[in-house]
Amino acid sequence: MGLKKRTKRHFFQRSKPYNRFMNQLALWTSEVSLPAPVVNVAQIPQRSPFRYPGGKTWLVPHIRVWLNSVKKPRTFIEPFVGGGIVSLTVAFENLSDHVIMVELDKEVAALWQTILSDDNEWLAERILSFDISNETVRDELATAPATRRDMGFQTLLKNRTYHGGILAPGSGVLKYGENGKGVKSRWYAQTLAKRIRNIAHVRDRITFIEGDGIKVIKKYAAQKTAAFLIDPPYTAGKNGKRAGKRLYTHFELDHDELFRQAEKIKGQLLMTYDNADEVKEMAERQGFETGLISMMNTHHATMQELIIGHDLGWASSL
Ligand SMILES: C[S@@+](CC[C@H](N)C(=O)[O-])C[C@H]1O[C@@H](n2cnc3c(N)ncnc32)[C@H](O)[C@@H]1O
């Protein structure tokens, strides 16, 4: 595969010296840093009720290519699941026998646990019967949740009415929202209830764990039939730290430890990170391959995100 072909769509590297050379080349030449064709997220089934900061809807077509290029995994594991669009896609499209989703944030966890339990229908009804206004949102969120499912509902309400879906401290309710509709601008009750009811159909294929993603990686690292998507909070390096802190309640992570544990994974592995020098260095230290994939951010600007894995051969066919 020649450089031209590779650079036409995705920039992608193999051996370490070659890596370094190509990284430099990417910085020096406009040819290789041309943006690759970008996924149109509107064409991807929206299966998650979350609008998640750092959500990976744009990665879904790449995940399909990746998982279809290997033996069907027995377990697909997402140790930092957030809004879960990739895990849900894997479950719905039967790309793996089982899915394990892991999340440390207790509010996010409460929503997933509610959706994946017998409280699924309660939640759908709660959404449909909620009469949304500035006052009702304020009153609801001023009440301490008495049960896990109440916390789950409040998480969804915050996620759909706060700026950018951000749940981290410092976030707050949309004042004007889209078309001056304020809190209503992202609260599509029918759609949300439908997505939640649809997830009930595949819930037998999903296990949710509230806890530390790195611990779960350690537990399953030796399984050759597992596939991991690792999408941690992007808090490596100074810039990353600032961005991650704004977006997530749990933004602190021992990235070196994450890379050390990821290196031990015997099954399939794909990691995504921001395209930062500190991250590339960590990946190189552990002998990973790295590549860049173009995506469009929420402001419709094309950006490049780093993908990391033991073998990114599948990415050359994208
Ligand atoms: C980049 S986001 C994941 C986004 C997700 N891939 C999506 O499409 O919505 C990272 C997530 O990791 C969670 N997190 C942070 N530290 C964690 C840890 N130690 N274990 C598990 N989850 C953690 C954050 O709360 C956040 O939801």
SSE arrangement:
Layout: H1 3-9, E1 11-12, H2 16-28, H3 60-68, E2 75-78, H4 85-92, E3 98-103, H5 106-115, H6 120-129, H7 134-142, H8 148-161, H9 189-201, E4 206-210, H10 213-220, E5 226-230, H11 237-247, H12 255-263, E6 268-274, H13 277-285, E7 289-296, E8 302-309
Parallel strand pairs: 2-3, 2-5, 3-4, 5-6
Antiparallel strand pairs: 1-7, 6-8, 7-8
Helix pairs in contact: 5-8, 6-9
Bound molecules: S-adenosylmethionine (SAM).
Provide key terms for this protein.
318 residues, alpha/beta, 13 helices, 41% helix, 14% strand, globular, binds S-adenosylmethionine
Strand order in the largest sheet = 1-7-8-6-5-2-3-4
Rg: 20 Å
The run of helices and strands is HEHHEHEHHHHHEHEHHEHEE
Which percent range describes the beta-strand content?
A: 5-15%
What low-confidence regions span 5 or more consecutive residues with pLDDT below 50? 1-15, 22-36
Write up what this structure looks like.
The N terminus is likely disordered. The longest helix has 14 residues. Helix 4 links the parallel strand 2 and strand 3. Strands 1-7-8-6-5-2-3-4 form an eight-stranded mixed β-sheet, sandwiched between helices. The protein has 318 residues and is of the alpha/beta class.
Question: Quick summary of this structure?
Answer:
With 318 residues, this protein is α/β, with parallel strands linked by helices.
